[in-house]
Amino acid sequence: MFLTCDKCQTVWRLDEKHLALGGRVVRCTSCGNTWFEKQIFIPGLTPEPEAAAAEPSFNDVLIEQMDDGASRAVAPLDAGFDMPAYDYHPAGLGPNAFGAAVFLLLFFVTVSGVFLLKSPLVAHVPSMTRLYEAVGVHLRAPGEGLALSALAADTAGTVMSVSGKVSNTSKEELPYPSFRVTLRGAEGVFLKDWAIHSRPATLAPGETVPLELNFKDIPHGGSTVEIKVLGS
Predict the structure, then answer these.
(1) β-bridge partners, 163
(2) Is residue 7 part of a domain?
(3) Which residues have C-beta within 8 Å of that of residue 216, sequence separation ≥ 6?
(4) Which of 14, 26, 155, 156 has the fewest CB atoms within 10 Å, i.e. the most exposed one?
């Protein structure tokens, strides 16, 4: 059962067996307030005192006997009581070893990302090229190992066709590249450009494939076509 002190509103838990049938004087050990507490039985819901368990419990240890021996109350924990510190060691490691393991993991992930994503990194931050070269990592430049030949451009009204050949001159398999086609007018004036993204294909060493590109709604006055390899 629960007892509430009318003075400090502290709530205590008390075993019913410590109250007599007619009630008993109890004292709040938090503020010292004393009052009479009577146990009320509800037939069918509240067990008789004799039927209550008589085994000692943790609450019994917290019962404080008054000087006259007539009343009991639960003793609260001392305000200055401090729980002992508990050292948590993840995976059985001490704090220093755990910190070192986390650092090594982050370092490994960072270095792996730098090497696995070197092409996108260099594309966004060209200055990273010097870093890779300093550690002996070769970076393949866009178009390296590829050759464009037999290029020709033809226009018919507002449609332009570009044809040619793409060859893999390296000794290893290369992904089919992406292109940027730029149309310029007299004296190299920029008119329009198109980005041709790579297709899901590869070129074997020494392989040559045809290049066929068609563009619509081209501006008038074009005289020069430039083709630039953007990479895979």
Answers:
(1) 152, 212
(2) yes
(3) 158, 159
(4) 156
The domain in which residue 191 lies consists of: 146-231
Residue 85 falls inside a structural domain: no
Same domain, 101 and 51: no
Burial profile 36-51: b = 16 or more Cβ within 10 angstroms, e = fewer: ebebeeeeeeeeeeee
For 127-183, write each residue's pLDDT tens digit: 666 666 676 666 666 677 888 899 999 988 889 999 999 999 989 898 898 889 999
* Number of independent structural domains in the chain: 3
Question: Is residue 71 exposed (0-12), middle (13-18) or buried (19+ Cβ within 10 Å)?
Answer: buried
Say whether both 125 and 163 belong to one domain. Answer: no
CA distance 153 to 182: 12
144: Cα separation from own chain's centroid: 37
